[in-house]
Amino acid sequence: MAELLRFESLFAEDERHTILAGLSLHVDEGEKVVIVGESGCGKTMSIGALVGLLPDDVRITSGSVVFDGHAVSGRSEDSGRIGFVPQNTSDSLHPLLKVSHTMTDPYLHHHRKESRKAALEKALHLLSSLGIEDAGRVLSLYPWQLSGGMKQRVNIASALMDDIKLLVADEPTSALDIHIRRQIEELYIALAENSGLAMLIVSHDLGFVKGIADRIYVMYAGRIVEEGTCSDIFENPVHPYTKALIALADRKAREKGKDLAEIGGTPFVLDRASAGCTFSPRCSSCSSSCIGPVCYKQISPTHFVRCVL
Amino acid sequence: MSILSCASVSKVFNDNGFEALRNISMEVEDGECVGIVGESGSGKSTLGSILGGLEKPTEGTVFYRGKDISKLKGTERKAFRRRVQYIFQDPKGAMNPFFTLARVLKEPLAINFPDLSDEEMMERAADILEKVGLPHSILNLHPYEISGGEAQRVVIARALLMNPDVIIADECVSALDLSIQAEVMNLLRHIREESNVSFLFISHDLDLVRYFCDRVCVMLHGRIVEFLQCDRMVEDAKSEYTRMLLRDAYGE
After folding, report:
1. Do A259 and B189 touch (CB under 8 A)?
2. Best mutation site among B170, B179, B248 for testing chain A: the one with the most A CBs within 10 Å?
3. Model's pTM, two decimal places?
4. Residue B180 maps to a domain
5. Domain containing residue B55: CATH number
6. Min CA distance, B182 vs chain A (Å)?
7. What number is the ipTM of this complex?
8. Cβ pair A178:B231 closer than 8 A
9. Core-most of A24, A198, A259, B7, by most CB within 10 Å?
10. Nearest residue on chain B to A183, judged by CA atoms?
11. E strand segments, chain B
């Protein structure tokens, strides 16, 4: 399938730290790709580089992001073709705008010939398709009148207003309680199955990842340490970090009266250039060979890993 | 005798007349760990803050060691405040952002143990940091300079400094990454093993409650749906709501 999005050895830094250290990944048309990793590994920053929402003090020092054949530089033509659902859904809705305006204003900005009425009909249709029964009433509400799950649906619907090719979602379910979380997860999975949209999702909920991903990237300290199809990663994980993440999420292994599995150590802070493996200080199978440079090895046609072991 | 309990507690918020809790009675036994689960808005946090004395119930009574907490006066009231400690979901929001962590830890000591010298307070603060697995060097930092997991440990350390009988933990790990979540849960479990402190563990993560608690109280719309023993949750669950929570947590 044709390639839709590519990050090519992207480096980014702020005043104190390196944030992205040679991030490379790609998403094909219609493909569902998930980035997993802990807080602080650079997941949200890589999304920021794509949708033009990097904090002011973060700058890209080298590398490129190419979407649909063009370098991404915050062009408005791109913004109509990438739908974005941010992490903090409450803060992303304008508190003084009704849902109807939140949903239709950006759309009308991109489609100046469309009427407000047609845009509202589209919004109504989208909200209904996302399982909101009284969509007409929801359109007339303000964000503070919505529940968490409802806000999440409004955000997804807003992202789908335009004729997008790629849906980007940053931790779409992490702020929700468990029952609503399952509903939103099902919504994303249904969308993935029925729409043909490409998706790039950041998540640390491995259960959800398993249900939706075609391919998975495992990110640590600003770069990819392992990539593969869903079965490569879950059935045949190679990198010790990937194995540790899977062990953490294994609820069946939680035994009363025994310690939970933990990774130990603290996530790596990239304040200096490092040739060796950045995970080695926390790695249980670390050896002397881990100090040297690590290349990105191919294990199978779809499965790659950055580990010397 | 139960260490913390409430009888027929209801809570109506005056500003909008919303009935957050209706006729709740429950108790936490000495050394016991009771979980409260339910969806957002079910009244878990309101119940926690009423049991911890942070909010007053509209009706009903809260008892600490058999005494009505609204009638506690003077040293008894101070003892209740000291012995029932709270750990919040957002640890950084629970610290004064202008304080160094040394001052964050010393402030409650200075209030509750006015006879301690500054050196003694620093000594206690350093000891407790060791217990929660943080380096002493962290004392000179401000809350914004540490990670979320470290901040939650500082808040736990601050609670432990008061030598509590009961710790009320309100969604204390739900904002943390799984790896940090595991570290904090292991820390709490070790605290339980080493001391006889009771816990009221509020969470929407039914599996975590099953792992950590002895009993669980399932709440929905401000009422108690049922009480279950954690190790017999699946077998004993009667209500459809609890079964739904179990399905969400474990699949079909």
Report:
1. yes
2. B179
3. 0.83
4. yes
5. 3.40.50.300
6. 6
7. 0.74
8. no
9. A198
10. B248
11. 2-13, 18-29, 33-37, 59-64, 67-68, 84-87, 166-170, 198-202, 215-220, 223-229
Q: Strand pairing partners for A66?
A: A6, A71
pLDDT per residue over B15-24, tens digit each?
Answer: 778 899 999 9
Q: Is the dihedral of CA A244, B34, B80, B9 positive or negative?
A: positive
**CATH class of the domain defined by A3-81+162-273:** alpha beta
Question: How does DSSP assign A164-215, residue by residue?
Answer: -SEEEEESTTTTS-HHHHHHHHHHHHHHHHHH--EEEEE---HHHHHHH-SE
Nearest to B249 among A178, A256, A261 (CB): A178
Q: Nearest by CB to B182, which of A182, A204, A261? A: A261
B122 found inside a domain = no
**Cα of A192 to nearest chain B Cα, Å:** 20
Give yes or no for B185 touching A (CB within 8 A). Answer: yes
Residue B242 included in any domain: yes
Report chain B's mean pLDDT, rounded to a whole number.
91
| Residue B65, domain member (yes or no) | yes
Distance CA B8, CA B60 (A): 5
